[in-house]
Amino acid sequence: MKSISRFRGPSLILLVTVHFLLFVAGLVTASVLRHGGQFVTPFAPAEQLRAFLALSPTAVRVSNFFLFASAIPFGIFAVTTVSRLRFRGVRAAGTNISLLGGLIATIALILSGCVGWILSVPEVLASAPIIKAVNFLNFLLGGVVFAVGFGLLAAGVSVTCYFMRLLPRWLVIFGMLLALSGELSSLSLVAYPANFFIPITRYLGFIWMFSVSIALTRDRKGSQPTSSSDAI
Predict the structure, then answer these.
(1) Looking at per-residue confidence, does 11 or 228 come out higher?
(2) Sign of CA dihedral 36, 42, 48, 50
(3) Mean pLDDT in the chain?
(4) How far is Cα 197 from Cα 185, in angstroms, rounded to an integer?
(5) Which of 216, 188, 215 is nearest to 202 (CA)?
(6) Which residues have a Cβ under 8 Å from the Cβ of 96 and sit 6 or more positions away?
(7) How far is CA 213 from CA 30, 68, 78, 97, 118, in A?
(8) Would you state the pLDDT for residue 220?
(9) CA-CA distances (angstroms) from residue 137 to 22, 186, 193?
(10) d(CA 85, CA 82)
């Protein structure tokens, strides 16, 4: 009789939940601790940006702490998802693409949180040009680089699971659309309107992560490799 092992690893659903709550905590903190002032984007004039950030350095510091913290469960989610696919017998390049994307997105969040924290330092807040440069770097890391990495993660998981029939068809399509959105966000480096793809990838990405977590943990037992496992 063939023995079926059981996957041993952290709960994907728990990891996504912790990541989501930490991310939301950063948004709430930024809103609650902010002392007035209308929100400005990284594309605002340098002096206007400096005046806005100087109003609430504590909000900047704490919100970026939560952003930094949210990277840890996200990275574990990405690695665990790849581990689950390999446990089910997947021997495809898609798992490595997923891992690459997950690592890129994780490192982007970590660096974005650290760079964003610098914007709370009084000496930095005294210089409008430095604030402009640091804020743009924070935006690029937490926005563009994260979205591109997330797109690779979603693409690798979705295509691999399509051939292995591990996810519902609608979820595979959803993941591919997110992957496309993530990669298109890179165009924001040359065209401002492409920034629209960043929040799409970010916020719809939470839905995709929760959905994938539920689908992949429904059956916690392993499965034997199939001929389609080498399809991509």
Answers:
(1) 11
(2) positive
(3) 87
(4) 5
(5) 188
(6) 156
(7) 29, 22, 11, 18, 34
(8) 47
(9) 22, 14, 18
(10) 5
Judge contact between 154 and 179, C-beta under 8 A: yes
What's residue 4's pLDDT? Answer: 53
Which pair of structure tokens corresponds to residue 153? 């993660």
Beta bridge partners of 5: none
CB 208 within 8 A of CB 174: yes
- Tell whether the model's pLDDT for residue 24 goes beyond 90: yes
The whole-angstrom separation of Cα 208 and Cα 193 is 24
pLDDT in tens, 139-182: 999 999 999 999 999 999 999 988 888 889 999 999 999 999 99
Higher pLDDT, 120 or 73: 73
Q: Over the range 88-97, which residues count as b (16 or more CB within 10 Å of their CB) and which as e?
A: bebebebbeb
Q: Scanning the structure block, which residue is given the tokens 């400096």?
A: 50
